[in-house]
Protein backbone atom coordinates (compact mmCIF):
# COMPACT_ATOMS: atom_id res chain seq x y z
CA UNK A 1 0.00 0.00 0.00
CA UNK A 2 1.06 3.59 -0.49
CA UNK A 3 2.74 5.11 2.53
CA UNK A 4 1.21 8.57 2.71
CA UNK A 5 4.10 9.81 4.80
CA UNK A 6 6.43 9.31 1.87
CA UNK A 7 4.58 11.45 -0.66
CA UNK A 8 3.07 14.88 -0.49
CA UNK A 9 -0.57 15.25 -1.33
CA UNK A 10 0.02 17.55 -4.24
CA UNK A 11 1.76 14.66 -5.98
CA UNK A 12 -1.29 12.42 -5.75
CA UNK A 13 -2.48 13.56 -9.14
CA UNK A 14 0.79 12.73 -10.87
CA UNK A 15 2.00 9.85 -8.75
CA UNK A 16 1.73 6.55 -10.63
CA UNK A 17 4.13 4.09 -9.03
CA UNK A 18 1.95 2.04 -6.74
CA UNK A 19 1.27 -1.53 -5.74
CA UNK A 20 3.21 -3.94 -7.95
CA UNK A 21 1.65 -7.24 -6.89
CA UNK A 22 -0.50 -9.27 -9.27
CA UNK A 23 -4.24 -8.73 -9.57
CA UNK A 24 -5.58 -11.93 -11.06
CA UNK A 25 -9.28 -12.27 -11.73
CA UNK A 26 -9.28 -15.04 -14.28
CA UNK A 27 -7.05 -17.70 -15.72
CA UNK A 28 -5.53 -15.13 -18.09
CA UNK A 29 -2.91 -13.60 -15.85
CA UNK A 30 -1.33 -11.59 -18.66
CA UNK A 31 -4.45 -9.49 -19.15
CA UNK A 32 -4.81 -8.89 -15.43
CA UNK A 33 -1.28 -7.91 -14.45
CA UNK A 34 -1.02 -4.29 -13.32
CA UNK A 35 1.06 -1.74 -15.17
CA UNK A 36 4.21 -0.92 -13.19
CA UNK A 37 6.19 1.97 -14.65
CA UNK A 38 9.97 1.55 -14.72
CA UNK A 39 12.55 3.64 -16.50
CA UNK A 40 10.32 4.09 -19.56
CA UNK A 41 8.14 7.16 -19.90
CA UNK A 42 4.38 6.65 -19.95
CA UNK A 43 4.28 7.60 -23.63
CA UNK A 44 6.72 4.80 -24.42
CA UNK A 45 5.27 2.25 -22.02
CA UNK A 46 1.56 2.60 -22.83
CA UNK A 47 1.33 1.89 -26.55
CA UNK A 48 -1.10 -1.02 -26.86
CA UNK A 49 -4.26 -2.37 -25.34
CA UNK A 50 -2.42 -4.82 -23.07
CA UNK A 51 -0.59 -1.90 -21.46
CA UNK A 52 -3.87 -0.08 -20.98
CA UNK A 53 -5.41 -3.21 -19.43
CA UNK A 54 -2.60 -3.43 -16.90
CA UNK A 55 -3.02 0.24 -16.04
CA UNK A 56 -6.74 -0.27 -15.49
CA UNK A 57 -6.05 -3.32 -13.33
CA UNK A 58 -3.77 -1.27 -11.11
CA UNK A 59 -6.60 1.26 -10.74
CA UNK A 60 -8.84 -1.49 -9.35
CA UNK A 61 -6.01 -2.69 -7.13
CA UNK A 62 -5.61 0.71 -5.49
CA UNK A 63 -9.34 0.84 -4.74
CA UNK A 64 -9.18 -2.49 -2.89
CA UNK A 65 -8.64 -0.68 0.38
CA UNK A 66 -10.65 -1.43 3.49
CA UNK A 67 -10.14 1.94 5.21
CA UNK A 68 -13.61 3.34 4.57
CA UNK A 69 -15.41 0.06 5.32
CA UNK A 70 -13.73 -0.32 8.71
CA UNK A 71 -13.99 3.38 9.52
CA UNK A 72 -17.70 3.44 8.76
CA UNK A 73 -18.31 0.48 11.07
CA UNK A 74 -16.17 1.71 13.97
CA UNK A 75 -17.08 5.39 13.92
CA UNK A 76 -20.81 4.64 13.92
CA UNK A 77 -22.66 1.76 15.56
CA UNK A 78 -21.74 -1.45 13.76
CA UNK A 79 -19.05 -2.60 16.21
CA UNK A 80 -18.33 -3.03 19.87
CA UNK A 81 -14.91 -3.56 21.38
CA UNK A 82 -13.71 -7.14 20.91
CA UNK A 83 -12.39 -9.27 23.73
CA UNK A 84 -8.97 -9.36 21.99
CA UNK A 85 -8.79 -5.60 21.41
CA UNK A 86 -5.29 -4.31 22.03
CA UNK A 87 -6.19 -0.64 21.85
CA UNK A 88 -7.43 -0.46 18.24
CA UNK A 89 -9.72 2.54 17.80
CA UNK A 90 -10.00 3.32 21.50
CA UNK A 91 -8.29 6.69 21.22
CA UNK A 92 -9.56 7.59 17.76
CA UNK A 93 -12.55 6.45 15.65
CA UNK A 94 -14.45 4.63 18.39
CA UNK A 95 -14.55 7.77 20.53
CA UNK A 96 -15.36 10.01 17.54
CA UNK A 97 -11.94 11.64 17.40
CA UNK A 98 -11.29 13.21 14.00
CA UNK A 99 -8.55 15.74 13.33
CA UNK A 100 -6.70 16.74 10.13
CA UNK A 101 -3.85 14.35 10.98
CA UNK A 102 -6.17 11.36 11.51
CA UNK A 103 -5.10 8.32 9.52
CA UNK A 104 -8.40 7.20 8.00
CA UNK A 105 -9.45 10.47 6.33
CA UNK A 106 -5.96 10.63 4.82
CA UNK A 107 -6.16 7.03 3.59
CA UNK A 108 -9.52 7.57 1.90
CA UNK A 109 -8.30 10.81 0.30
CA UNK A 110 -4.97 9.39 -0.89
CA UNK A 111 -6.26 6.08 -2.20
CA UNK A 112 -9.18 7.62 -4.02
CA UNK A 113 -7.10 10.29 -5.73
CA UNK A 114 -4.40 7.74 -6.50
CA UNK A 115 -6.97 5.62 -8.32
CA UNK A 116 -8.31 8.70 -10.10
CA UNK A 117 -4.80 9.49 -11.31
CA UNK A 118 -4.61 6.05 -12.90
CA UNK A 119 -8.11 6.23 -14.35
CA UNK A 120 -7.31 9.58 -15.95
CA UNK A 121 -4.33 8.03 -17.69
CA UNK A 122 -6.47 5.20 -19.04
CA UNK A 123 -8.91 7.76 -20.44
CA UNK A 124 -6.13 9.83 -21.98
CA UNK A 125 -4.18 6.98 -23.56
CA UNK A 126 -7.27 5.16 -24.81
CA UNK A 127 -7.66 7.97 -27.32
CA UNK A 128 -4.03 7.71 -28.45
CA UNK A 129 -3.48 3.96 -28.88
CA UNK A 130 -3.93 2.68 -32.42
CA UNK A 131 -5.96 -0.56 -32.24
CA UNK A 132 -4.63 -3.66 -34.00
CA UNK A 133 -8.08 -4.73 -35.22
CA UNK A 134 -11.79 -4.37 -34.46
CA UNK A 135 -11.58 -6.66 -31.45
CA UNK A 136 -8.73 -4.61 -30.06
CA UNK A 137 -10.66 -1.41 -30.70
CA UNK A 138 -13.60 -2.79 -28.70
CA UNK A 139 -11.28 -3.66 -25.80
CA UNK A 140 -9.76 -0.16 -25.78
CA UNK A 141 -13.24 1.38 -25.83
CA UNK A 142 -14.37 -0.85 -22.97
CA UNK A 143 -11.34 0.08 -20.88
CA UNK A 144 -12.05 3.77 -21.43
CA UNK A 145 -15.66 3.23 -20.33
CA UNK A 146 -14.44 1.39 -17.22
CA UNK A 147 -12.09 4.27 -16.39
CA UNK A 148 -14.86 6.85 -16.85
CA UNK A 149 -17.11 4.81 -14.55
CA UNK A 150 -14.39 4.54 -11.92
CA UNK A 151 -13.66 8.26 -12.19
CA UNK A 152 -17.30 8.95 -11.39
CA UNK A 153 -17.17 6.47 -8.50
CA UNK A 154 -14.08 8.14 -7.06
CA UNK A 155 -15.51 11.64 -7.28
CA UNK A 156 -18.76 10.52 -5.64
CA UNK A 157 -16.78 8.94 -2.81
CA UNK A 158 -14.84 12.15 -2.19
CA UNK A 159 -18.02 14.24 -2.26
CA UNK A 160 -19.90 11.94 0.11
CA UNK A 161 -17.13 11.90 2.74
CA UNK A 162 -15.72 15.41 2.57
CA UNK A 163 -18.66 17.64 1.65
CA UNK A 164 -20.49 19.11 4.66
CA UNK A 165 -23.79 18.77 2.78
CA UNK A 166 -23.99 16.51 -0.30
CA UNK A 167 -27.43 17.95 -1.15
CA UNK A 168 -26.16 21.52 -1.48
CA UNK A 169 -24.72 22.33 -4.91
CA UNK A 170 -22.84 25.28 -3.42
CA UNK A 171 -21.12 23.33 -0.64
CA UNK A 172 -17.50 22.35 -1.20
CA UNK A 173 -16.66 18.81 -2.29
CA UNK A 174 -13.01 18.05 -3.10
CA UNK A 175 -10.46 18.65 -5.82
CA UNK A 176 -11.82 17.91 -9.27
CA UNK A 177 -9.53 15.29 -10.84
CA UNK A 178 -10.80 15.05 -14.40
CA UNK A 179 -7.42 15.19 -16.13
CA UNK A 180 -3.81 14.13 -15.80
CA UNK A 181 -2.20 16.75 -13.57
CA UNK A 182 1.29 18.05 -14.28
CA UNK A 183 4.12 18.97 -11.94
CA UNK A 184 3.75 22.70 -12.58
CA UNK A 185 0.20 22.79 -11.18
CA UNK A 186 1.10 23.92 -7.70
CA UNK A 187 -2.31 24.53 -6.15
CA UNK A 188 -5.53 22.65 -6.63
CA UNK A 189 -8.58 24.21 -4.93
CA UNK A 190 -11.72 22.43 -3.84
CA UNK A 191 -14.73 22.96 -6.08
CA UNK A 192 -18.43 22.76 -5.31
CA UNK A 193 -20.74 19.78 -5.21
CA UNK A 194 -22.47 21.15 -8.28
CA UNK A 195 -19.24 20.89 -10.28
CA UNK A 196 -18.65 17.40 -8.93
CA UNK A 197 -22.15 16.15 -9.74
CA UNK A 198 -21.93 17.57 -13.26
CA UNK A 199 -18.63 15.74 -13.83
CA UNK A 200 -19.94 12.51 -12.29
CA UNK A 201 -22.99 12.37 -14.56
CA UNK A 202 -21.03 13.44 -17.63
CA UNK A 203 -18.54 10.62 -17.06
CA UNK A 204 -21.32 8.10 -16.49
CA UNK A 205 -23.25 9.26 -19.55
CA UNK A 206 -20.08 9.06 -21.66
CA UNK A 207 -19.35 5.59 -20.28
CA UNK A 208 -22.87 4.36 -21.01
CA UNK A 209 -22.61 5.66 -24.56
CA UNK A 210 -19.47 3.57 -25.03
CA UNK A 211 -20.88 0.46 -23.35
CA UNK A 212 -24.00 0.65 -25.52
CA UNK A 213 -21.89 0.95 -28.65
CA UNK A 214 -19.83 -2.21 -28.04
CA UNK A 215 -21.14 -5.14 -30.06
CA UNK A 216 -22.23 -8.13 -27.93
CA UNK A 217 -21.23 -6.35 -24.73
CA UNK A 218 -21.75 -8.38 -21.55
CA UNK A 219 -21.35 -6.84 -18.10
CA UNK A 220 -18.71 -8.50 -15.93
CA UNK A 221 -19.12 -7.69 -12.23
CA UNK A 222 -15.36 -8.01 -11.67
CA UNK A 223 -14.89 -4.88 -13.78
CA UNK A 224 -16.65 -1.53 -13.83
CA UNK A 225 -19.58 -2.13 -16.14
CA UNK A 226 -22.78 -0.77 -17.61
CA UNK A 227 -24.95 -1.86 -14.68
CA UNK A 228 -22.54 -0.26 -12.23
CA UNK A 229 -22.60 2.99 -14.21
CA UNK A 230 -26.40 3.05 -14.05
CA UNK A 231 -26.35 2.16 -10.36
CA UNK A 232 -23.90 4.97 -9.67
CA UNK A 233 -26.29 7.42 -11.27
CA UNK A 234 -29.01 6.19 -8.91
CA UNK A 235 -26.65 6.48 -5.93
CA UNK A 236 -25.44 9.94 -6.92
CA UNK A 237 -28.96 11.26 -7.39
CA UNK A 238 -29.99 9.79 -4.03
CA UNK A 239 -27.05 11.48 -2.30
CA UNK A 240 -28.08 14.74 -3.98
CA UNK A 241 -31.68 14.29 -2.88
CA UNK A 242 -32.94 14.21 -6.47
CA UNK A 243 -35.22 11.26 -5.94
CA UNK A 244 -37.08 11.47 -9.23
CA UNK A 245 -33.89 10.66 -11.09
CA UNK A 246 -32.64 8.33 -8.36
CA UNK A 247 -35.74 6.17 -8.70
CA UNK A 248 -35.55 6.30 -12.50
CA UNK A 249 -32.04 4.86 -12.53
CA UNK A 250 -32.69 2.39 -9.71
CA UNK A 251 -35.63 1.04 -11.69
CA UNK A 252 -33.43 0.89 -14.79
CA UNK A 253 -30.94 -1.36 -13.01
CA UNK A 254 -33.64 -3.52 -11.42
CA UNK A 255 -35.50 -3.98 -14.70
CA UNK A 256 -32.68 -4.33 -17.24
CA UNK A 257 -29.55 -5.67 -15.50
CA UNK A 258 -30.84 -9.26 -15.20
CA UNK A 259 -29.25 -9.27 -11.74
CA UNK A 260 -31.56 -10.65 -9.09
CA UNK A 261 -31.73 -10.72 -5.31
CA UNK A 262 -30.10 -13.78 -3.78
CA UNK A 263 -31.97 -16.38 -1.77
CA UNK A 264 -30.50 -17.36 1.62
CA UNK A 265 -28.26 -20.09 0.19
CA UNK A 266 -26.76 -17.82 -2.46
CA UNK A 267 -26.55 -14.88 -0.08
CA UNK A 268 -24.18 -16.88 2.12
CA UNK A 269 -22.07 -17.70 -0.93
CA UNK A 270 -21.78 -14.01 -1.81
CA UNK A 271 -20.15 -13.16 1.50
CA UNK A 272 -18.58 -16.40 2.67
CA UNK A 273 -16.97 -17.85 -0.47
CA UNK A 274 -17.56 -15.41 -3.36
CA UNK A 275 -18.92 -18.21 -5.55
CA UNK A 276 -22.58 -17.26 -5.92
CA UNK A 277 -24.30 -18.11 -9.24
CA UNK A 278 -23.97 -15.69 -12.13
CA UNK A 279 -26.17 -12.58 -12.01
CA UNK A 280 -26.99 -13.00 -8.34
CA UNK A 281 -26.95 -9.81 -6.33
CA UNK A 282 -23.50 -8.37 -7.12
CA UNK A 283 -23.34 -5.47 -9.57
CA UNK A 284 -19.65 -4.65 -9.06
CA UNK A 285 -16.92 -6.18 -6.96
CA UNK A 286 -13.21 -5.52 -6.53
CA UNK A 287 -11.66 -8.93 -7.00
CA UNK A 288 -9.15 -10.31 -4.52
CA UNK A 289 -6.92 -13.33 -5.04
CA UNK A 290 -5.04 -15.74 -2.74
CA UNK A 291 -1.77 -14.12 -3.84
CA UNK A 292 -2.98 -10.86 -2.30
CA UNK A 293 -3.68 -12.41 1.10
CA UNK A 294 -2.08 -10.26 3.76
CA UNK A 295 -3.23 -9.04 7.13
CA UNK A 296 -2.66 -5.46 6.03
CA UNK A 297 -5.21 -5.57 3.21
CA UNK A 298 -7.61 -8.51 3.73
CA UNK A 299 -11.16 -7.33 4.29
CA UNK A 300 -11.85 -9.68 7.20
CA UNK A 301 -8.71 -8.44 8.97
CA UNK A 302 -10.34 -5.06 9.41
CA UNK A 303 -11.99 -6.49 12.53
CA UNK A 304 -9.83 -9.45 13.57
CA UNK A 305 -6.19 -10.51 13.47
CA UNK A 306 -6.54 -14.02 12.07
CA UNK A 307 -9.96 -15.30 11.04
CA UNK A 308 -13.62 -14.32 11.53
CA UNK A 309 -14.33 -16.77 14.34
CA UNK A 310 -14.10 -16.79 18.11
CA UNK A 311 -10.47 -17.94 18.06
CA UNK A 312 -9.47 -15.42 15.39
CA UNK A 313 -8.43 -12.66 17.81
CA UNK A 314 -11.26 -10.17 17.15
CA UNK A 315 -10.46 -6.62 18.17
CA UNK A 316 -13.95 -5.49 17.08
CA UNK A 317 -17.18 -7.45 17.42
CA UNK A 318 -20.79 -7.03 16.33
CA UNK A 319 -22.24 -4.13 18.29
CA UNK A 320 -24.87 -5.08 20.82
CA UNK A 321 -27.39 -2.72 19.25
CA UNK A 322 -26.96 -4.33 15.82
CA UNK A 323 -27.03 -7.83 17.27
CA UNK A 324 -30.26 -7.08 19.15
CA UNK A 325 -31.90 -6.09 15.86
CA UNK A 326 -30.65 -9.23 14.12
CA UNK A 327 -31.66 -11.45 17.01
CA UNK A 328 -35.27 -10.38 16.58
CA UNK A 329 -35.12 -12.09 13.17
CA UNK A 330 -33.66 -15.56 13.75
CA UNK A 331 -34.71 -16.82 10.31
CA UNK A 332 -33.32 -13.80 8.46
CA UNK A 333 -30.16 -15.04 6.69
CA UNK A 334 -28.37 -11.82 7.62
CA UNK A 335 -28.37 -12.97 11.26
CA UNK A 336 -26.29 -15.99 10.25
CA UNK A 337 -24.11 -14.12 7.75
CA UNK A 338 -23.15 -11.32 10.15
CA UNK A 339 -22.84 -13.19 13.48
CA UNK A 340 -20.42 -16.12 13.59
CA UNK A 341 -21.90 -19.42 14.90
CA UNK A 342 -18.89 -19.68 17.21
CA UNK A 343 -20.04 -16.55 19.07
CA UNK A 344 -20.81 -16.71 22.79
CA UNK A 345 -24.06 -14.91 23.54
CA UNK A 346 -24.76 -13.73 27.06
CA UNK A 347 -28.52 -13.19 27.61
CA UNK A 348 -27.64 -11.25 30.76
CA UNK A 349 -25.08 -9.04 29.03
CA UNK A 350 -26.59 -5.83 30.43
CA UNK A 351 -25.71 -6.81 34.01
CA UNK A 352 -22.59 -8.87 33.33
CA UNK A 353 -19.61 -8.13 35.55
CA UNK A 354 -17.29 -8.81 32.60
CA UNK A 355 -19.30 -7.97 29.48
CA UNK A 356 -16.34 -8.02 27.10
CA UNK A 357 -15.52 -11.63 27.96
CA UNK A 358 -18.98 -13.01 28.62
CA UNK A 359 -20.60 -11.70 25.41
CA UNK A 360 -18.50 -12.42 22.32
CA UNK A 361 -20.36 -11.50 19.13
CA UNK A 362 -17.98 -12.29 16.30
CA UNK A 363 -18.19 -10.43 12.97
CA UNK A 364 -18.07 -12.94 10.12
CA UNK A 365 -19.77 -11.25 7.17
CA UNK A 366 -16.67 -11.50 5.02
CA UNK A 367 -15.40 -15.07 4.78
CA UNK A 368 -17.45 -16.69 7.52
CA UNK A 369 -19.24 -20.01 7.74
CA UNK A 370 -22.82 -21.21 8.06
CA UNK A 371 -21.97 -23.51 10.97
CA UNK A 372 -18.99 -24.52 13.06
CA UNK A 373 -15.86 -22.45 13.38
CA UNK A 374 -13.80 -23.26 10.27
CA UNK A 375 -14.12 -20.14 8.14
CA UNK A 376 -13.58 -19.60 4.42
CA UNK A 377 -11.37 -16.56 5.00
CA UNK A 378 -8.07 -16.92 6.76
CA UNK A 379 -4.87 -14.94 7.10
CA UNK A 380 -2.10 -16.94 5.49
CA UNK A 381 0.08 -17.07 2.41
CA UNK A 382 -2.12 -17.81 -0.62
CA UNK A 383 -5.16 -18.17 1.63
CA UNK A 384 -8.68 -17.20 0.60
CA UNK A 385 -9.68 -13.61 1.25
CA UNK A 386 -12.89 -11.96 0.15
CA UNK A 387 -13.70 -9.65 -2.72
CA UNK A 388 -14.91 -6.14 -1.93
CA UNK A 389 -18.58 -5.85 -2.93
CA UNK A 390 -18.96 -2.25 -4.08
CA UNK A 391 -22.55 -2.37 -5.27
CA UNK A 392 -25.35 -4.92 -5.01
CA UNK A 393 -28.84 -4.99 -6.47
CA UNK A 394 -30.42 -4.66 -3.01
CA UNK A 395 -29.12 -1.08 -2.88
CA UNK A 396 -31.32 -0.24 -5.85
CA UNK A 397 -34.43 -1.44 -4.01
CA UNK A 398 -33.37 0.59 -0.97
CA UNK A 399 -32.91 3.70 -3.11
CA UNK A 400 -36.35 3.11 -4.59
CA UNK A 401 -37.75 2.95 -1.04
CA UNK A 402 -36.09 6.31 -0.29
CA UNK A 403 -37.68 7.78 -3.39
CA UNK A 404 -41.11 6.55 -2.35
CA UNK A 405 -40.62 8.04 1.14
CA UNK A 406 -39.54 11.33 -0.37
CA UNK A 407 -42.76 11.32 -2.40
CA UNK A 408 -44.83 10.65 0.74
CA UNK A 409 -45.88 7.24 -0.60
CA UNK A 410 -46.03 5.12 2.56
CA UNK A 411 -47.40 2.07 0.78
CA UNK A 412 -44.73 2.40 -1.90
CA UNK A 413 -41.97 2.27 0.70
CA UNK A 414 -43.21 -1.08 1.95
CA UNK A 415 -43.56 -2.44 -1.58
CA UNK A 416 -39.99 -1.40 -2.40
CA UNK A 417 -38.56 -3.10 0.70
CA UNK A 418 -40.63 -6.28 0.46
CA UNK A 419 -38.52 -8.01 -2.26
CA UNK A 420 -35.44 -7.73 -0.03
CA UNK A 421 -37.31 -9.15 2.95
CA UNK A 422 -38.71 -12.02 0.88
CA UNK A 423 -35.23 -12.89 -0.36
CA UNK A 424 -33.52 -12.69 3.02
CA UNK A 425 -36.11 -14.76 4.87
CA UNK A 426 -36.53 -17.18 1.98
CA UNK A 427 -40.31 -17.04 2.24
CA UNK A 428 -42.91 -14.41 1.40
CA UNK A 429 -43.13 -11.71 4.05
CA UNK A 430 -45.91 -9.33 5.01
CA UNK A 431 -45.53 -5.96 3.29
CA UNK A 432 -44.36 -3.36 5.82
CA UNK A 433 -46.89 -0.68 6.72
CA UNK A 434 -46.18 2.74 8.22
CA UNK A 435 -48.29 5.21 10.15
CA UNK A 436 -46.25 8.26 9.16
CA UNK A 437 -43.36 9.34 6.98
CA UNK A 438 -40.85 9.50 9.84
CA UNK A 439 -41.51 5.85 10.65
CA UNK A 440 -41.00 4.98 6.99
CA UNK A 441 -37.62 6.75 6.88
CA UNK A 442 -36.62 5.03 10.13
CA UNK A 443 -37.43 1.63 8.67
CA UNK A 444 -35.50 2.39 5.48
CA UNK A 445 -32.47 3.35 7.56
CA UNK A 446 -32.87 0.20 9.66
CA UNK A 447 -33.08 -2.01 6.57
CA UNK A 448 -30.01 -0.31 5.11
CA UNK A 449 -28.23 -0.97 8.40
CA UNK A 450 -29.07 -4.69 8.30
CA UNK A 451 -28.53 -5.19 4.59
CA UNK A 452 -25.34 -3.17 4.11
CA UNK A 453 -23.58 -3.77 7.43
CA UNK A 454 -19.78 -3.87 7.18
CA UNK A 455 -19.86 -2.76 3.54
CA UNK A 456 -18.98 0.90 4.13
CA UNK A 457 -22.41 2.57 3.98
CA UNK A 458 -23.40 3.33 7.57
CA UNK A 459 -21.48 6.62 8.04
CA UNK A 460 -22.89 8.14 4.86
CA UNK A 461 -26.37 6.75 5.57
CA UNK A 462 -26.53 8.40 9.00
CA UNK A 463 -25.20 11.61 7.47
CA UNK A 464 -27.94 11.53 4.81
CA UNK A 465 -30.95 10.00 6.52
CA UNK A 466 -30.76 10.07 10.33
CA UNK A 467 -32.48 13.43 10.71
CA UNK A 468 -35.31 12.38 8.38
CA UNK A 469 -35.71 9.19 10.43
CA UNK A 470 -35.46 11.05 13.76
CA UNK A 471 -32.74 8.69 14.96
CA UNK A 472 -29.09 9.05 15.92
CA UNK A 473 -26.12 6.73 16.12
CA UNK A 474 -27.41 3.69 18.00
CA UNK A 475 -24.92 2.28 20.49
CA UNK A 476 -25.94 0.03 23.35
CA UNK A 477 -24.62 1.26 26.72
CA UNK A 478 -22.91 -2.11 27.18
CA UNK A 479 -20.49 -1.10 24.42
CA UNK A 480 -19.34 2.14 26.04
CA UNK A 481 -20.32 2.21 29.72
CA UNK A 482 -20.14 -1.36 31.02
CA UNK A 483 -17.71 -2.78 33.53
CA UNK A 484 -15.18 -3.91 30.91
CA UNK A 485 -16.10 -1.57 28.06
CA UNK A 486 -16.07 1.79 29.79
CA UNK A 487 -15.40 4.52 27.23
CA UNK A 488 -17.46 7.60 28.11
CA UNK A 489 -16.30 9.49 25.04
CA UNK A 490 -17.91 6.78 22.88
CA UNK A 491 -21.38 7.69 24.16
CA UNK A 492 -23.41 8.55 21.02
CA UNK A 493 -24.61 11.79 22.60
CA UNK A 494 -21.12 13.03 21.72
CA UNK A 495 -21.91 12.75 18.01
CA UNK A 496 -25.26 14.44 17.27
CA UNK A 497 -26.65 14.38 13.74
CA UNK A 498 -25.54 17.96 13.15
CA UNK A 499 -21.92 17.29 14.11
CA UNK A 500 -19.31 18.80 11.81
CA UNK A 501 -17.55 15.42 11.96
CA UNK A 502 -19.91 13.98 9.36
CA UNK A 503 -17.66 15.79 6.89
CA UNK A 504 -14.17 14.34 7.17
CA UNK A 505 -11.25 16.73 7.60
CA UNK A 506 -9.10 17.58 4.62
CA UNK A 507 -5.85 15.75 5.52
CA UNK A 508 -3.05 17.76 7.09
CA UNK A 509 -0.56 16.72 4.40
CA UNK A 510 -2.88 18.16 1.77
CA UNK A 511 -3.13 21.41 3.69
CA UNK A 512 0.65 21.60 3.98
CA UNK A 513 1.29 20.95 0.29
CA UNK A 514 -1.71 22.78 -1.13
CA UNK A 515 -2.02 26.02 0.89
CA UNK A 516 -4.95 27.37 -1.09
CA UNK A 517 -7.25 24.52 -0.17
CA UNK A 518 -10.08 25.21 2.29
CA UNK A 519 -10.48 23.05 5.38
CA UNK A 520 -13.94 21.89 6.47
CA UNK A 521 -15.60 23.82 9.33
CA UNK A 522 -14.82 22.63 12.86
CA UNK A 523 -11.29 21.43 12.21
UniProtKB/TrEMBL annotation:
The keyword Cytoplasm does not apply. Residues 351-523 form the RagB/SusD domain. It is found in: Cell outer membrane. The keyword Membrane applies. Keywords: Cell outer membrane, Membrane, Signal. InterPro entries: SusD-like_N, SusD_RagB_dom, TPR-like_helical_dom_sf. SUPFAM superfamilies: TPR-like (SSF48452). Gene3D superfamilies: 1.25.40.390. GO terms for cellular component: cell outer membrane. Its main location: membrane. It comes from the Bacteria. Pfam families: SusD-like_3 (PF14322), SusD_RagB (PF07980). Residues 101-211 form the SusD-like N-terminal domain. Belongs to the SusD family. This is RagB/SusD family nutrient uptake outer membrane protein.
Amino acid sequence: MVNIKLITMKKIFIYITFVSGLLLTSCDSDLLTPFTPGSLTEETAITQSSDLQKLMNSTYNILSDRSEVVFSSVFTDEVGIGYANGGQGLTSEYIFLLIPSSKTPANIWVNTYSALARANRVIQYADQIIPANTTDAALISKLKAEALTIRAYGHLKILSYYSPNPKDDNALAGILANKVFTFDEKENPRVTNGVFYAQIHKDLDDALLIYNGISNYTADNKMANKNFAKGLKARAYAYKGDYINAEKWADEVINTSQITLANPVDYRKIFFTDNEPANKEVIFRLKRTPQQNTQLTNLHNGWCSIAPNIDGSPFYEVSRSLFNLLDQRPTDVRRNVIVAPSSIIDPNYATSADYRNSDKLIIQKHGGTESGSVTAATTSTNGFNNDFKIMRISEMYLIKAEARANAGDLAGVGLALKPILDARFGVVQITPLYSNITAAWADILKERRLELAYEGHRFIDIKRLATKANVTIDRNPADYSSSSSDYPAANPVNLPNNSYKFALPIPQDELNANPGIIQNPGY
